[in-house]
């Protein structure tokens, strides 16, 4: 198993399930590292910066949802929660804490690999220098954003907000989910503050895309990139 920053971290305390996931991922050419308890995970992620985390919810030492919350405080690494707790409230809670996907046990290992592959493709398209959506390009390395070649003058918060929406076009983000991505220090921010950021971002994007309603409000839920 790999321990460098190119690996996928499998966090699972059941040895048979962990071995199955590791075997299928490595057969699909994804180097992996396995941790069987919750206590070690956050420190390992900080040090090794994995490409993706497959995270079980029920773990000894620390539960997966708490781990997800802590990781989102300092990293955007994709997180896929894997669990036998299938109740709707658990699914919503996992996604509210910043998980990118949710897989319920029992599952097909091939399905897990397919989900991982889909997330990896999305991440690669986000980081590619020429990647764009509706002419919008976000260059995270140089902290620049452009629309059809025109530079966007964005605040740091607006830049992270646009990056979050651009990462998953069509996905509806709640205000809390956007706050988690924009404010890494977990500060308390009112809905009105987030709405103000969205309003300013819309205005700046619309200057170069006047005929497009790029950022849509989904009433009672949140926002999405159309």
Task: Describe what you observe in this structure.
- The protein is α/β, with parallel strands linked by helices.
- The protein folds into 2 domains: 8-126, Response regulator (Rossmann fold); 128-225, Winged helix-like DNA-binding domain superfamily/Winged helix DNA-binding domain (Arc Repressor Mutant, subunit A, Orthogonal Bundle).
- The protein has 8 helices and 11 strands.
- A 5-stranded parallel sheet has the order 2-1-3-4-5, with helices on both faces.
- Helix 1 packs across helix 5 (109-127) and helix 6 (156-167) crosses helix 8 (191-206).
- It is elongated and about 55 Å long.
- The N and C termini lie far apart (40 Å).
- 28% of the residues are buried.
- The mean pLDDT is 82.
Q: Give the strand order of the largest sheet, numbering strands 1, 2, ... along the chain.
A: 2-1-3-4-5
Fraction of residues in β-strands: 15-25%
CATH homolog superfamily of the largest domain: Response regulator
Helicity level: 40-55%
CATH class of the largest domain: Alpha Beta
Mean pLDDT level = 82
Number of helices: 8
Count of DSSP E strands? 11
- Count of folded domains: 2
Stretches with pLDDT under 50, minimum 5 residues:
none
Give the terminus-to-terminus CA distance.
40 Å
N-to-C order of helices and strands = EHEHEHEHEHEEEHEHHEE
Query: What is the CA-atom radius of gyration, in angstroms?
Result: 18 Å
Q: What spatial form do the alpha-carbon principal axes imply?
A: elongated
